[in-house]
């Protein structure tokens, strides 16, 4: 079986290193050329290395996986998506015959996906080249993220965005308060989640210290205090109050 040269693209270091270790241990015919954690660097590296296959995360800040693909004039590599994305995206993958891995990645699923990939490649060496444009037209880069991957020290948690009440900055970490009363502390700074949720209509950034889910606002006091579900309090900086009140009137 011929060696397949691979590039991994995922902004989460832990996720990409886990996938790399699984590939090296369980899929010996894959040769990893590069692991890319900065999406903005991906196009240049791919153009230089010319991999046969990329493992591509969708949900990345600044430049997501679909936007990266759109930046190429010609797609001359195959793609396996790695995602915690919503069902609409997954259905589009299926319709267009793209393989995908759901996070957190499972070794057996990785092996099964690679097996399917080899079978498709054997029967039709160019099976994906004409399908990327069709996929991008169908998917149209959804702007409402339904699930997010939350990096923690020692692991990952996948959350439904509808379950998140708010996110608060905590000295380079982020505390995420959930509807069920739990609090998750992420090893990522708040700006990471600002990027992930910037196009989500339910979330609003309160200065540089927090993000709230507008659906969970119970009360607002004129001095700038928001009361959220589970009696969570968030303060709105004076300079941001006018814009926030205008947002509330739109809802």
Secondary structure layout:
Layout (H helix, E strand, L loop, with lengths): L3 E6 L3 H14 L3 E7 L2 H11 L3 E5 L7 H6 L7 E6 L3 H9 L3 E4 L4 H17 L8 H8 L7 E6 L2 E6 L3 E7 L2 E6 L4 E4 L3 H8 L5 E4 L3 E4 L3 E5 L3 E4 L3 E4 L5 H10 L1
Parallel strand pairs: 1-2, 1-3, 3-4, 4-5
Antiparallel strand pairs: 6-7, 8-9, 8-12, 9-10, 11-12, 13-14, 14-15
How many H/I helices? 8
CATH class membership of the largest domain:
Alpha Beta
Looking at CATH, which topology of the largest domain would you report? Rossmann fold
- Global Rg: 20 Å
CATH superfamily of the largest domain: Response regulator
- What is the distance, rounded to the nearest whole angstrom, between the alpha carbons of the first and last residues? 57 Å
Q: Into which percent range does the helicity of residues fall?
A: 25-40%
